[in-house]
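Bit of a strange request maybe. I'm writing a small parser for structure token strings and I need a real example to test against, not something I typed by hand. Could someone generate the tokens for this chain?
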Amino acid sequence: MIVRNLHGIGLDVSIRALAVEVINAKAGVPGEPYDMILADFPPSYPDPADMLLRLLGGENTRKPSGNDNFAYFDDPIYNRRLAAANRLLGAARFRAFSKLDAEIMRTQARRHGPRCSKEATRSCSRSGSAA
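Reply from user aminoacidic:
Good idea to test on real output. This should exercise your parser:
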């Protein structure tokens, strides 16, 4: 479906199947060239911080390797708001993270593009792109 849709807008797509460990290692290194990664990020425990801080926390983008923020989303305003939500407890914590999740997806995802999604089985990039 991705190949067909991207081909429909004039992009040549090549897909490389990689092991999950390889995808995570490569995409977790700043500057690694890729255009899109389909990956699964199951939560380690049932808390919104596990997903939002891990996948969108700006400090992760500054790690030399082992970064789960494959979109390299690093916005100082959202970093502060995520940290503030992380200090809350109970229902207030869930409401704050829910609000941030919805706002980031609505206002920021278009600017940062889809770098990760559902399956950790494929990586694709535009032919001849330098990412």
